[in-house]
């Protein structure tokens, strides 16, 4: 579905809309409204919309609880192995084997669990490398892990800055840094898609680079899962973590997930924080004293999962399966391509697009800066909101817009650019 085959005007959007095989999925989501006006929602990079099937998925578990009490844990659809239903769809979305993924906890919790296992500082190799614009929670997690090991983050945390005036990860500088410091780096943590700029990183190439220098490597996939194609098993990072409330549409604070590569999970002597949900499921209720880990990522589970927070994820993943990820990605590339074309055509030099142009190097999100910067920058998103467009603003002065292929239309992209132009002109 190439964006350029159609005219730039509203007629072009209508033609693209008519050719959109996935258009019917929009009706499967609750669309936020402002009075009677349906909002133009381009904020799925922050919180995805609610699948209409989510309330009944939660309701079904409430009814099970009401009707069965403790016996709801057992039998068909029971909660004892409830999380197992997520392995296949999550493996499909991440390009993993089913024993490499698990739905559990939230992103930062999972990151800590992974750092416990894969950040194993020695006297010579004790540093963690992150990007300068890493999401704050990732930074807090690695800083606190360093301190936990008696290390001073001011010395042991290495930060890779972008080239001056750029927001993109500078792989050349990363290579140079690793040539110099690689022997002292124990672990590298990078995003799959950068939260601010929307840049998609090459997980395979970065993993190979980390391996060449003997470093463990993990990825934060908060902005990547459900957004861009992933091939984690093939690419081979040690671990990855994600949340499910952005492109996975599972609701605020939904249960996140974790990938542990088979090779890394099988490593001897790996330290791990453990709990009973990681214990062999057939023997869990024997109340044994010795921990018998499940195979693969499942062994990192601690507690029995919050079923009411998992149920919406099931409703959402069913939509991904029905739509097919390849078709979603094609539409996403076309939607975002159209958004970039329109922004360039309508705003010209006034807007600087921070997201890489090439479809392979981005996901759904487009990040913008303005020249000159609006006087009250943070109010731009509010003024857009008043015009019926939901986007968001992140410091220092970045506006983020993400058309999501499951529920956004080509018309939404046009409406957003029109509103943005009017807002800047006002
Ligand atoms: C890139 C990134 N990493 C980490 C987080 C933190 O996620 P959580 O609150 O689930 O730990 C977020 C939240 O938006 C995020 O965008």
Give a concise summary.
The chain is of the alpha/beta class and 426 residues long.
Give an overview in words.
The longest helix has 23 residues, at 325-347. Helix 2 (54-68) crosses helix 11. The protein is globular and about 70 Å long. Strand 8 (216-220), helix 9 (232-235) and strand 9 (239-242) form a beta-alpha-beta unit. Helices cover 36% and strands 13% of the residues. It is α/β, with parallel strands linked by helices. The mean pLDDT is 94. It has 14 helices and 15 strands. A seven-stranded mixed β-sheet has the order 4-10-9-8-7-5-6, sandwiched between helices. The chain has a four-stranded antiparallel β-sheet with strand order 11-12-15-14, with helices on one face. A two-stranded antiparallel sheet has the order 1-2. Bound molecules: pyridoxal-5'-phosphate. Residues 106-108, 135, 137-138, 191, 195, 220, 222-223, 243, 256 line the site of pyridoxal-5'-phosphate (PLP).
List all distinct small molecules, including ions and cofactors, that are bound in this structure: pyridoxal-5'-phosphate
**Average residue-wise pLDDT:** 94
Structural category is alpha/beta
CA gyration radius, whole angstroms: 22 Å
Termini gap = 34 Å
**Spatial sequence of strands, sheet with the most strands:** 4-10-9-8-7-5-6
Indicate the proportion of strand residues.
5-15%
Shape: globular
Largest sheet: 7 strands, mixed
User: Secondary-structure element sequence?
Assistant: HEEEHHEHEHHEHEHEHEEHHHEEHEEEH
Low-confidence stretches: none
Helix segment count? 14
Share of residues in helices: 25-40%
């Amino acid at each position: 579905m190439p964006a350029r085959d159609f005219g730039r005007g509203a007629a072009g959007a209508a033609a693209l809309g008519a050719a959109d095989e996935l258009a019917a999925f929009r009706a499967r989501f609750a669309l936020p409204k402002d009075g009677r006006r349906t909002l133009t929602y381009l904020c799925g990079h922050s919180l995805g919309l609610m699948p209409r099937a989510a309330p009944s998925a939660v309701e079904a578990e409430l009814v099970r609880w009401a009707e069965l009490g403790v016996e709801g844990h057992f039998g068909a659809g029971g909660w004892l192995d409830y999380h197992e239903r997520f392995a296949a769809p999550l493996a499909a979305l991440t390009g993993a084997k089913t024993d490499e993924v698990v739905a559990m906890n939230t992103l930062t919790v999972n990151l800590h669990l992974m750092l416990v296992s894969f950040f194993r500082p020695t006297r010579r190799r004790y540093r963690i490398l992150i990007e300068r614009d890493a999401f704050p929670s990732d930074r807090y997690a690695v800083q606190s892990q360093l301190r936990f090991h008696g290390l001073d983050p001011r010395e042991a945390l290495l930060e890779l800055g972008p080239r001056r005036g750029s927001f993109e990860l500078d792989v050349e500088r990363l290579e140079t840094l690793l040539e110099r410091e690689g022997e002292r780096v124990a672990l590298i943590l990078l995003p799959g898609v950068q939260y601010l700029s929307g840049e998609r990183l090459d997980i395979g190439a970065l993993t190979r680079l980390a391996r060449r220098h003997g470093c463990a490597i993990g990825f934060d996939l908060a902005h990547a899962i459900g957004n861009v194609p992933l091939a984690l098993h093939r690419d081979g990072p040690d671990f990855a973590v994600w949340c499910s409330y952005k492109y996975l549409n599972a609701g605020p604070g939904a249960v996140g997930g974790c990938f542990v590569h088979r090779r890394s999970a099988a490593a001897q002597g790996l330290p791990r924080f453990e709990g009973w949900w990681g214990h062999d499921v057939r023997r869990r209720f024997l109340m044994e004293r010795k921990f018998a880990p499940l195979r693969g990522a499942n062994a990192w589970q601690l507690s029995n999962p919050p079923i009411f927070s998992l149920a919406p994820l099931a409703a959402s993943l069913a939509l991904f399966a029905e739509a097919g990820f390849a078709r979603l990605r094609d539409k996403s590339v076309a939607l975002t391509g159209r958004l970039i074309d329109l922004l360039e055509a309508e705003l010209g030099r006034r807007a600087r697009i921070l997201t890489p142009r090439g479809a392979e190097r981005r996901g759904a999100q487009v990040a913008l800066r303005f020249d000159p910067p609006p006087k009250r920058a943070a109010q731009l998103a509010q003024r857009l909101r008043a015009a019926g467009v939901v986007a968001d603003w992140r410091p220092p002065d970045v506006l983020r817009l993400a058309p999501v292929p499951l529920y956004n239309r080509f018309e939404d992209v046009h409406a957003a650019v029109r509103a943005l132009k009017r807002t800047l002109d006002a």
